[in-house]
Queue: 2 jobs
Job 1
Amino acid sequence: MPQSTSAANSTSEDQTRQVADDEGPIIPEATATCLTWKNLTQQNFLAAKARFVAWDHRGKTVSPGMWHAEIYPYPDTEDGVAWYICNCKWVHPDHARQWELDQVQEMLEKKCGAWNSGTVLSEKWQKTYAIVPSPWFRKNSHYHENLCPDHCAKPL
């Protein structure tokens, strides 16, 4: 279970499949990948995630072929954290449900350790979740580089 959050319980060590809880289904065909940044600030990690959940609760969605990020703290600091989602679908918008973000955090904790950066890709959903340091995100989002798979999101 992700530290300091309510999340899905997992009975499988397989990083490509998670067991659902009462809050939602599993993220299908999901693969977790660790990135190079370790020991992200726990408070900022959880606050950026909470901002994403609040954004979703306001009825917001990620448009087809686009990405959306939530960063904490804002404005940016050296120890800031960004959570972002790439919606690689051509037609349908995507949500950022809390149960999905909880599963992403759980998968990355199991594979990469707590409070570390990484991505989770669901081929079936054509969706990528990522957690990175906000300075890296700001630099790359400014130039629209390296955020999403090549076949995926385009800059606004």
Job 2
Amino acid sequence: MGSPNRLFNRQRNVHEILGGGLVADVMLWRRGNLTGGSCWSMVILAAWLVFEKSGYTLLSLVSSVLLLIFLLFLWAKSAAILNRPASLLPEMYLSEEMVNEVGAFIRTHVNDLLSISQDIALAKDARLFFKVAPCLLAVADFCCWWLE
């Protein structure tokens, strides 16, 4: 039997088959932050496509969710009236500890972002400014081109 890190008992491992570089690291979740960031960017892109390109609005999404909740409510009430067992829905709750952890995580990252933004705005880190400014200009140009 072959080595456990070899694909189909080949001579090269999966990382080498995928190219062995940054793309292979991202595809194999070896760089978690980069892979997570790319997954989040795909989710944001999909949400933008749903709302912008298809004409689906936030109001229609909210109304669809409220309609679903209303139908579940009617289903539960009709089951009680007809003496049938109610459909099982999982009990969902957020513990105080989980909310505090998420809040602390978000607070630290927002404070770091604000600190970096302040350093850029006050010209304390000129090197970072000259890295960020062209990127923001490129994003603005791309958005203007895309929305034409």
